[in-house]
Amino acid sequence: MTTLLRRYGWPLTAVIVLLCAWWVVVMVVLPQLVMVDYSFRPNLLPREIGTEKDVWTLANYKTLWSNQIHLAIFFKTIWASCLVTFVTFVVCYPIAYYMAQVARGPKAGLFAVLLVIPYWVNEILRTFAWYILLSRGGPINEALMGLGLIAEPIDLKQGDLGVILGMVYAYILFMVFPLYTAMESLDRNQIEAARDLGASIPRIHWRVVIPHSKPGIATGCIMTFMLAAGSYAVPALLGSPGSRWFTEIIYNWFFEGGDWPQGSAYAFILLLLCLGFILLMLKLFKVRLGDIAK
Amino acid sequence: MTEIAPDRLAALAEAQAPREPETTRRRRTAATTPAAERLRSGLTRFYLVLFFAYLFLPLAIMSAATFNDSRFPTVLPWLGTTTKWFGVLLDDRLMWDALWTSLIVGAGVVAVALPTGVAAALLLNGLHARARNIVYALMVSPLLTPGVIIGISTLIFWDRAFGMPGGVLLTILAQASFITGYVMLMVLARMQRFDPGLEEAALDLGATHTQVFRRITLPFLAPSLAAASVIAFLQSFENYNTTLFVKGLDTTLTVYIASQVRTGLTPAVNALGVILIGITVIGAAVYELRRRQALKP
């Protein structure tokens, strides 16, 4: 604080502190607190607020527990998001390694540009592309029929498969870049040394590359899981009523059920889930929050 | 990397190969056997082709569907080539309204997130260890929060506490609450290469605090400010999950695309996709080229 004051004087320091306070307190922390408070209250009419009916209750949380359908969707969202995270990691690990340690010169630059481009294409458009691929008369169905694997076009948007495929595609680059950044800082001599000493390729990765890339792996997994569990766009476009996502239930509480406290409770549960996943990853990979989101 | 794992020692022990002249040993390690090496590079190439096909084929197919003379966005069967869907798109008033809303929201987000992000980076730079860690965690927390929750909390807070319903203003506030985090990280990255001695020297030579900020700090940060503005605008432009909850009756372009896909889908959506992808590709290529040139001595 004294550093700021000395360099920029008190008027500028006051502006800096006020802007930060506005952001952190008014835009981030207070809304979250109000949402949590709201989730413990009954759904009241405006004139009932502040009356004796306005008490704290756990009723909104009990709803999830007693509603079998919602509970099943909640757990489906968890395992499907874990699956998306795992598949994304498997797909991205080789390309990140290749870019960071194998590719050289202009080729590496070209690959970097090629990777960046789809990253800037709208998530909705990336999902829409899969909407076309998965549709009844779409290329995937045609290809499967051409290979003789299926006789009739199948509805790929009926179950969870379409949603999972779409999510892996939509969030792949949130995994590639953290992995790449972490692997790039690995001294190539370490890999050479391990190879010279006779370590096999899987062992080089298991003992040298992966331990070094832990912060990147943790960041990528956290981002992917958070995006998958919190996605509304992908299940809304690629799912069907039979494959609903937890976020869709939250949305319905707000804009169809008109029960905001109930929706807040579900939203808070989703937030706790993501928080739990972050803590799990930090513990699993033994990294600190400071190493994440760099 | 403080302990030597038994596994590593085993790896060391395994490597007790008979001593050979340096040259043959080098060659052996670089390529165990020609056949194995060929197999490996073949597999690598196969994976690369597969990966980039996976990345680009869906977008290519979506773009191609624009030009198929069919009522639905599809590439099969190909019913002839047309560009009429661009015309349909450009005649769509709703699309223009949505585009306009997106531009206003994007500009608003940049206007809020840029100064706040810079202030946050400066504040973090002036704080020490413990306080810095806590404030940093608070500031990056919106980046690790699902977008729907940011939208919901913003909506409840402003609507219930201040009677402010969803709309352009709330969309700006909700989006800026996490986009400011990106700006802060980008400015902070640039700050790390800043020599604070410059500011000290200017002060010693009698510059005022405002002069130090305007003539030294800001010019140094300028490149990161330009990049952060672009990123902030793009993040805002493509946001869907957060916007959905705070948009009220207003519609941004991304929300428009999603609603078109869900109801009344025609290849006009693909035409919009082609235009947006085209702009993206050109923008990314120009940005990358300029960055390359800047890196060259």
UniProtKB/TrEMBL annotation, chain A:
Membrane topology: Multi-pass membrane protein
GO cellular component: plasma membrane
Main location: membrane
Naturally occurring in which organism (per UniProt): Caenispirillum bisanense
Name the UniProt record assigns to this protein: Spermidine/putrescine transport system permease protein
Annotated ABC transmembrane type-1 domain residues: 74-281
Subcellular location: Cell membrane
Taxonomy, superkingdom: Bacteria
TrEMBL record, chain B:
Transport listed as a keyword: yes
Keywords: Cell membrane, Membrane, Transmembrane, Transmembrane helix, Transport
Gene3D superfamilies given in the database record: MetI-like
Transmembrane segments: 46-67, 98-124, 136-158, 164-188, 218-237, 268-287
One Pfam match: BPD_transp_1
Membrane-topology descriptor: Multi-pass membrane protein
Sequence ranges assigned to domain ABC transmembrane type-1 in this UniProt record: 99-287
InterPro entries assigned: Bact_Polyamine_Transport, MetI-like, MetI-like_sf
GO cellular component annotations of the record: plasma membrane
Region (Disordered): 14-33
Highest taxon above the source species: Bacteria
Principal cellular location given in the protein's record: membrane
Subcellular location: Cell membrane
GO biological process, alphabetically ordered: transmembrane transport
SUPFAM superfamilies, per database record: MetI-like (SSF161098)
Similarity remark: Belongs to the binding-protein-dependent transport system permease family. CysTW subfamily.
PANTHER family listed in its UniProt record: PUTRESCINE TRANSPORT SYSTEM PERMEASE PROTEIN POTI
Protein name (database record): Spermidine/putrescine transport system permease protein
Organism: Caenispirillum bisanense
